[in-house]
Design brief:
This protein is α/β, with parallel strands linked by helices. An eight-stranded mixed sheet has the order 4-3-2-5-1-6-8-7, sandwiched between helices. It is globular and about 70 Å long. The N and C termini lie far apart (about 45 Å). The model has no long low-confidence stretch (mean pLDDT about 95).
Length: about 220
């Protein structure tokens, strides 16, 4: 069985839309495309390499697949970060799309139609599946309890709106932090692995006060 690893670059308010440039995804007039790039430093690069260190295949939503397919095959492999272009060239790329209008001519590409196809793929033997971007796909993976690990790069900006990493409906789980790092630019990188259920604690008094009883009653009425 393969693991599914979500890789995401997010703002402090959880936005992951268009991290690489203004033309990536201007959906709903998003105006901060490229917000990650000023924070790209040595630590960022090293931790990104860590995400791609073990053998993997890419698992991408349609929009992110199209962004990658229009960029990485044309990137000079001898240029800075050309190693990523070379790496992506030699692996399988799974594009998940319900639409019939998608060009999967990028070498090594395989089209999946729905989350059921992803579930079947996860059950097969093979390298881990790593996502990049792909907001809608990530939401579906989380809702269907298919995520085994996450690598989250949190950039010290607040964007005020845009497509977010998490949405209501994710399957509840706790995650264990396996590695973390802070760059001089203020970037916080956390690598997490799925651990188990949600642990619950309680700070309530042994005997609630009259005021607390009244508060609880009000909450019942309002809800």
């Amino acid at each position: 069985m393969r693991k599914i690893i979500v890789g995401a670059m997010v703002s402090m308010d959880g936005v992951m839309q268009a991290p690489g440039g203004p033309t990536e995804d201007p959906t709903k007039s998003f105006k901060f495309g490229g917000w990650v790039m000023p924070y790209f430093d040595q630590e960022f690069g090293e931790e990104l390499d860590r995400v791609f260190k073990e053998k993997f295949d890419l698992l991408l939503g349609r929009k992110t697949y199209e962004i990658f397919a229009a960029y990485w095959p044309y990137y000079d492999e001898d240029a800075p970060h050309g190693g990523i272009a070379k790496l992506f060239k030699g692996i399988k790329k799974y594009a998940v799309s319900r639409s019939g209008e998608i060009d999967t001519s990028w070498a090594g590409s395989v089209l999946l139609r729905d989350i059921a196809d992803v579930k079947r793929l996860k059950q097969e033997d093979g390298p881990n599946l790593v996502t990049q971007g792909s907001t809608e796909l990530v939401h579906a993976l989380l809702a269907n309890d298919l995520v085994d690990a996450m690598s989250i790069f949190t950039v010290p900006v607040v964007l005020g709106g845009g497509k977010k990493l998490f949405a209501d409906g994710s399957a509840p789980h706790s995650f264990k932090l396996t590695r973390s790092r802070i760059s001089p630019n203020g970037l916080i990188i956390g690598h997490y692995e799925r651990e188990g259920g949600i642990k619950i604690g309680d700070t309530a008094l042994d005997k609630p006060s009259v005021r607390e009883v009244a508060r609880r009653e009000r909450m019942k009425r309002e809800n």
